[in-house]
Amino acid sequence: MPPQSSPSAAPRISTGIAELDSILAGGLTSNRAYLLEGTPGSGKTTIALQFLLEGARLGERGLYITLSETAAELTEVARSHDWDLDGIELFELVNEEGLDPDSEQSILEPSEVELGETIQGVMECVDRLRPARVVFDSLSEMRLLAQNSLRYRRQILALKQYFSTRNCTVLMLDDRSSDPGDLQLHSIAHGVITLEQAAQEYGTERRRLRVVKMRGVKYRGGFHDFIIETGGVSVFPRLIAAEHHSAFSETQVTTGLERLDQMLGGGLSAGTNALLNGPSGVGKTSTAVRCAVSAIERGEKAVYYLFDEGRATMLARSRAMGLDLEPHIASGALQVIQIDPADLSPGEFASWVRRAVEVEGVKFIVIDSLNAYLQAMPGEKFLMLQMHEMLSYLNQQGVITILILGQHGIIGEVRSEVDLSYLSDTIVLFRYFEAQGNMLKAISVAKSRTTAHEASIREFRLGVGGIVIGDPLKDFEGVMTGLPTYRGTTPLLAADPAADAG
């Protein structure tokens, strides 16, 4: 007996936002009713208009039914995004006629008359225009007109059934003004998307969305950051490293410093990350810049994400060490991007990194520093999860990543705001130490997953000629504590001007 053919699946349609379509595994199932909920200002109207504009672009008729906003207000929203709503019908269910005292009813309950007239107005408009896409704004007005939950549920069910018989894909907007525990709309709608916005104590507000429910669709769960800018909503799907694999050669490359390569057991390996850990001013950024220039010199593209110091300051410091970055920036081989963590969400930053790797072909990335990046996160726990996904993604793409983590303290005990050691493939420690009345610097490789690294501690110096790394400090004890004891004859770099740069 031949197998019975299964009914064909309903076609999928785009929301008008490519990243949201990706989260929904291809978009919305057509001819269904969806709930788009969020507090006022969270972005419901903007997303709804993008949904209708996408339909207009495809030659589908769109209808925006509004009970809460006027057509003039909607037109103003569209104008702020440089949109033209000529192909979309705007239907106001409440207009100045509702203010006429002669139109008031005295025999029947006003709510009954108003709700009946509202439903009738919606049906007449849809029957007349036959739209393929409909936005109903908003259900909170319907809830007030219905006055009780049973009547409200019946009316929404009736509207849902009515739309389904007219081959309409409907977005129903709700401002979540009802009891937070009331999930009636969730059970009625084919799919539910929740929008949230949170005000920060400093910086811009953060917005994120979550697909609560989507029948018959294996959507991407969890929260996804988004922003509203001129041109509409941009969504940043949560990064899932397991979805991104690419083949690459696991080769070792030079840092541009011979002695640092020696300490690392041969250099940096493709598809790994290195954590440069130490107090402020000890040379972490200078070392990262030297490694980035080395990547450019072997023909790779590099991006330097600068969270802490100013871009001009960083370029001037590099130039003073003999590393002029301007020609590399002009050629497009290097991007130095200064970031304000108060205005950037973690999801948006992850999308920048993905674009750099997948679109621009970047193979070397520096994040300077994780201390400032931490301020963009709601908590240390989330930083760890975010960094785990991002570093796993970059490793799977064959990218070399340099992470800079500043520590508190100069001499003696130093500590970090967050421990990322278990996420790091390589850890390079920088320390200050006191000797012969001078404040000197030391460098050591504490960990390397891919190579047999050197266990020595060497002196480290920054100067006009660049970075200088000395011989192992074999005659010192307690260098990493900052107060060492000298027990030998090994000369220091400070006393050996002929030391070679390494």
Mean pLDDT: 86
Unreliable stretches: 1-7, 95-111, 497-501
Q: How would a crystallographer describe the biggest sheet? A: 9 strands, mixed
For the record, the count of structural domains works out to 2
Secondary-structure content class: alpha/beta
Proportion in β-strands: 25-35%
- Percent helix, as a range, is 25-40%
Dominant shape: elongated
Distance between the termini: 77 Å
Number of helices: 14
The CATH class label of the largest domain is Alpha Beta
Number of extended strands: 24
What keywords describe this structure?
Rossmann fold, nine-stranded mixed β-sheet, 502 residues, 30% helix, disordered C terminus, alpha/beta, disordered N terminus, 24 strands
Structure, explained:
The protein has about 500 residues and is α/β, with parallel strands linked by helices. The protein folds into 2 domains: about 10-240, Rossmann fold (3-Layer(aba) Sandwich); about 245-495, 3-Layer(aba) Sandwich (Rossmann fold). The protein has helices spanning about 20-25, 45-55, 70-80, 110-130, 140-145, 150-165, 185-190, 260-265, 285-295, 310-320, 325-330, 345-360, 370-375, 380-395; strands spanning about 10-15, 30, 35-40, 60-65, 90, 135, 170-175, 190-200, 205-215, 225-230, 230-235, 250-255, 270, 275-280, 300-305, 335-340, 360-370, 400-405, 425-435, 440-450, 455-465, 465-470, 475, 485. It has a 9-stranded mixed β-sheet with strand order 5-4-6-7-3-8-9-10-11, with helices on both faces. A 9-stranded mixed β-sheet has the order 16-15-17-18-14-19-20-21-22, with helices on both faces. Strands 1-2 form a two-stranded antiparallel ribbon. Strand 21 (about 455-465) and strand 22 form a beta hairpin. It is elongated. The N and C termini lie far apart (about 75 Å). Residues about 1-5, about 95-110 and about 495-500 have low confidence and may be disordered.
